[in-house]
Amino acid sequence: MSLAMNWNEWSKFDAMGLAELVRKGEITPHEVANQVAKGVKELNPQISAVIEIFDDVVDAPLSDGMNPDGVFAGVPFFMKDLGPTLKGRLQERGSLLMEGNRSAADSFLTKQIRQAGLNIMGRTTTPEFGLCSSAENPEVYITRNPWDLDYTTCGSSAGAAASVAAGIIPISHATDGGGSIRIPAGVNGNIGLKSSRGVFSGAPNSSDLMNVVSAQGCHTRTIRDTAAFVDHCRGGAPGEFMSYWTPQEPYSELIKRDPKKLRIAASHEWGDYKATPHIVSELKKTADYLEGLGHHVEWVVPDLDLHASYEAQTASYIMKFSQTISDILEQKNMEHPPADLIEPMCIRVWEEGRFASYTDRVKMETMFNEISRKMAAFFEDWDIVLTPTMAKPTPLIGATEYLTISDNPSVYDWFENLWSIFSYTPIANICGLPGISLPMAELENGLPLGMHMLAPQGEDGLLLQLGAQIERELNGNWNHGRKPANHVTNI
Predict the structure, then answer these.
(1) pTM passes above 0.90
(2) What is the mean pLDDT of residues 243-254?
(3) CA distance 56 to 87
(4) Rg of the chain's alpha carbons, rounded to an integer?
(5) Which neighbouring-strand residues pair with 298?
C-alpha cells in the first residue's frame, strides 16, 4: 500500500490535524495507520522504539473497539509496554521474565483511549518494570535517541519518546512514577505532561497511595494534542479510593486564552543538587523569556526538606517494586527472582524491600504528607515553579550507573545517582502535582533540553495554558524549529 502523503507533509500534522483530515474524508484511519507502520519499518532498526505493531488493527482499525466518532477519529496510538493492559495482547514490561505474558482484559484507561478515537496499534519499549532511566538491556533492546544514536532516550517512557520525536507518530502513551513522562520528553524534544492526582485512572489494578505516585499520560508535539488527550481520557472507574475530578472548562478551550500574569519561582538548586553551568544558563534564558511574556519571575527555592523528598520517593519505589516482583514470583511459583531473567538491580531492590514493615510504610506516608503540605503552602505565594527537566546532560548509551543492569552493590547509592541527574521531577509524584516538560532549550552538544514547570495540585490547565502561550509566541517552532537526525523527513 502506498503512503497517503509524503513524510514532509506528514511531519506538519499533529494528532488533531490528522483527525480533522479523517473527518473530512481526505484520509482514512487505515491509511494513517499504514503510514505509521511504514515509519516504524524505516526507523525502528535505528532507534528500537517499537516492540510490536498490531497488524490486524492496522488493517482493520475498528477491530479492537476504537470509536471512530471520538475526537481523535482513528489517529494511531502506541501503548507503553507497562501500565494499562490490552485484552489478548502481550505486555512484557521490559523483562525477560515476562516474555509471552498476555493480558486478560482492557484496563479502564485503555477503554477511555479507544473511546476518544485513538487507534492503539502497537507497543513501545520500557526498562524492566519501569524502574530505571533508560530502556537499555542488550538482552532485551536498546532504545536510542533520534537526535543522536549514541545517547539514551532516558525513560521509562523510552519508546514513546523516541517514536514521537522521530516523527513516526504524533501522540503516544507514557507513564510517570518520578519523571518518566517529563524526563524523556525533555531529552527527546517532546511535550510531556504529568497530570495531577485524580485525573487518569489506573483501574482496575491500582488504587492506594503506592500506586497513585505514578501517573498516566502521553507524549505529543503540540499542546492541543495533550489537552485533547486529557479532556477525553480522564476520569475514574467505579470503586476508586479517591475522588476523580473534571475542570469547569475543557482544557482544549482554556488553552485558546493566555494565562493571567503568573508568579514564577525559578530554581536549579534542589536539595543537595545543582544543575550544570550550561543548564543553568539555559534556565536563565527561559526565565528571561517568560518575563518577556509579561510574567513575574524570581529565583526562589521552596522552603522544605527536599532531601526528605528523595528519601520518601526511594522508600516508595523500593516497597512498591519489591511487592510487584513478589506478586509475579508467586504467580510463577518461584521463591527468588531468576538471575538470568531479572536484571541485577531489580533483584537487589526486591531484596531490600521484601521485609519492609508497616512502620516503614507509615514513615514514608508521613514524609509524603509533610512534603505535600509544605509544597502547597509554597504555592500560596507562587503560581509556577520553573526548573530544568534534568540537572545533568543526557547520558551516553552504556552509562550503567543509571541502569538496572548496574553492578552497584548498594540500592541506596544507585537511587542517589538517579536523583543527582533527575533532581527536579520526583516531588510532583509525591505531592500529586502536575508537571510539564516543554522543548525550549538545548544542551551544549545540540540535544534537546526540556524546561520543567510545576503547578499546584489541580492546576494542570494552567500549565497547558502557559505552554500554549509559549507555543503561539514560537509559532509552533519547539526545539528552535529543529528536527532529529533520525526523523521521517530524512527517510
Answers:
(1) yes
(2) 96
(3) 14
(4) 21
(5) 265
